Amino acid sequence: MAGTVLAGCTGSGLPGESGSSASDTYGTSPLADPDGTRPGLAPISSEQDEATARELIAGLHTKGRGPKTGYDRDEFGYAWMDTADGVPLARNGCDTRNDLLKLHGRNVRFRTGSDCVVVSMDLYDPYTGKDIAWKKAKATEVQIDHVVPLSYAWQMGAARWSEEKRRRLANDALNLLPVSGPTNSAKSDSGPASWLPPNKAIRCSYAVRFAQVARKYELSVTAPDKSAMLRQCGG
User: Label partner for 2 (CA 20 to 30 A): which of 11, 73, 156, 199?
Assistant: First the structure.
């Protein structure tokens, strides 16, 4: 089995308060990664960066969350399609899930004869602050989180989008992070007022990433979600 190590540890921060086993925090500040194409998600800690984060979040429009009527995952295209034009990593011959595992994982190993299908890797999970030694045999231990959940987006206006735009949101690296499967399941389709990563050190970065996606796709957020996001960044 051929193996490839992916480097790219940029940024720094404190391990999570949830019992981190990671020796070094792995990731990039979202303020330095507006496209979501650099590995990991590092904490935001300086006062200047927190001020920049608050300015970004403050610019979001707010409205109430609409009904979920008509929502279906397939309204955003089939899962992990490689043909969502207009987003990074599209049409490279590898599906979105494996692209994200390759981007964020370390010590990545591929299926024999493939440079796409990841069969094992080490992942620093920003949501919990822990390292995960992942193997494809237990695939659900790592899930790809939509930072802005698709059903949330549907209720905030995506129901009226073109299918092409919905496909972009579902496969845009900016809106995707590989994380602990149980933690992602616990999040479900919650906004930041209802759910935040257990790792408190990453909560401002999570709020920034949520805001980046909302701004890129011209999505409103609820007023409680906006307030919760500002609080994570010292507002």
Answer: 11
Contacts 24+ apart (CB under 8 A), 65-72: 65/152, 65/155, 65/156, 65/191, 65/222, 66/155, 66/156, 66/157, 66/159, 67/155, 68/151, 68/154, 68/155, 70/154, 70/159, 71/150, 71/151, 71/154, 71/155, 71/159
- The set of long-range contacts for 167-170, using a CB threshold of 8 Å and a minimum separation of 24, is 167/76, 167/77, 167/81, 167/83, 167/84, 168/84, 168/85, 168/86, 168/87, 168/217, 169/76, 169/213, 169/217, 170/76, 170/77, 170/81, 170/84, 170/146
Beta bridge partners, 179, equal 143
- 229: which 2 tokens? 């996001």
State the residue for tokens 């007022």.
Answer: 193
Q: Nearest 5 degrees, angle CA 207-CA 213-CA 219?
A: 105
- The 10s digit of each residue's pLDDT in 86-123 is 999 999 999 999 999 999 999 999 999 999 999 999 99
135 DSSP 8-state letter:
E
Q: Which helix (H) or strand (E) holds 180?
A: strand 176-180
Strand residue runs (E) in 30-117: 106-110
pLDDT in tens, 124-177: 999 999 999 999 999 999 999 999 999 999 999 999 999 999 999 999 999 999
Q: What is the pLDDT of residue 25?
A: 61
What does DSSP assign to residue 163?
Answer: H
- Measured from the Cβ of residue 119, the count of other Cβ atoms closer than 10 Å reads 18
Neighbouring residues of 78: CB distance < 8 A, sequence distance ≥ 6: none
